[in-house]
Every structure is written in structure tokens, then in C-alpha cells.
Specification:
- By secondary structure, this protein is an alpha+beta fold.
- The chain has one domain: TATA-Binding Protein (2-Layer Sandwich), CATH 3.30.310.
- Helix content is about 35%, strand content about 25%.
- It has 5 helices and 6 strands, in the order βαββββαβααα.
- The chain has helices at about 25-30, 85-100, 110-115, 115-125, 130-140; strands at about 10-15, 35, 45-50, 55-65, 75-80, 105.
- A hairpin with a 6-residue loop joins strand 2 (about 35) and strand 3 (about 45-50).
């Protein structure tokens, strides 16, 4: 398990998996509060969850829409960011138990690339649910559709 964080900074755990099927329904087994996120990069669907209790954490899951595997053998990325690597490990265990998704360690380059989630996590901690509200507004379909 590779963590990239500095002391007194948020820790991000990055895992990958090979997953086929309805990700949203599977994630609902973990939490009904999981929200669709705006897709910014490539051909992916993203979901996020920000929880305050028992301590703040941000969970983001991204999956290739076409379910195609990368050359490293995964099509799903999970990140968990909190102030504690041990807490992230507990969330990961609960995630596996509830969803049945078999996670494996992410390639090091991917884990390093996810370090910037710590900055986003700080914004979530400062703004609480307001940060997720912004993402909900972005994802609401327009009334004209």
C-alpha cells in the first residue's frame, strides 16, 4: 500500500480494479449518498462521497464508460482521502465488504498523480456539504431537456 502524503497533510489512498456492470447501483451498497460527479477527463463516469462522521473523508470512484481495461489491467479507480492513512484503510475494507469490488494496489504513477486530491479535500473540509452542492448543481439536467 503506497501513500503519498506529508505530515499534517491529508492522505490519499488510491486503488484500482477490474469492474463490469452498473457502478452507480454497486456504489449504493456502500452508501446511498454517493453522487455523480462531472466527468472532466476522457471517457469516464465519476461518483463521489463526502462524509463528516466519524471523521471527514472524500471518496471518488471513476470508471471507463466502455469498460475497456488500461494496459495495467484496470478500468476503475478508487481514491479515499482523509487526514489518516489508517482511517482510509478502514474505509477501503468497508468498501470491499459492501460492494464486492476486488481492489488492488494502484500503479505508483497513478498514486502519485492523485496527491492533489489533498488540496480538494481541504476545500471540502472548509466548506462541508456546500462543496458537494456545487457538484450537484453542475450535474442537474436542465429543465429544457
Amino acid at each position: 500500500m503506497v501513500y503519498f502524503n506529508e505530515p499534517n497533510k491529508p492522505a490519499t489512498l488510491t486503488k484500482v480494479a477490474e469492474f463490469y456492470g452498473d457502478l452507480e447501483k454497486t456504489l449504493e451498497k456502500f452508501s446511498k449518498k454517493v453522487e455523480p460527479l462531472i466527468g472532466i477527463i476522457g471517457n469516464t463516469i465519476k461518483f463521489g462521497l463526502y462524509e463528516i462522521q466519524p471523521q471527514p473523508y472524500l471518496l471518488i470512484t471513476s470508471k471507463q464508460v466502455n469498460e475497456q481495461l488500461t494496459k495495467y489491467g484496470y478500468n476503475l479507480i478508487l481514491t479515499i482521502t482523509s487526514d489518516s492513512p489508517g482511517f482510509n484503510n478502514n474505509i477501503e475494507k468497508r468498501f470491499i465488504e459492501k460492494t464486492g469490488i476486488r481492489l488492488k494496489d494502484a500503479p505508483e504513477f497513478l498514486s502519485q498523480g492523485m496527491m492533489n486530491l489533498g488540496m480538494a479535500f481541504d476545500i471540502f473540509k472548509e466548506n462541508g456539504e456546500k462543496a458537494m452542492e456545487v457538484l450537484r448543481i453542475i450535474n442537474k439536467p436542465s429543465r429544457e431537456e
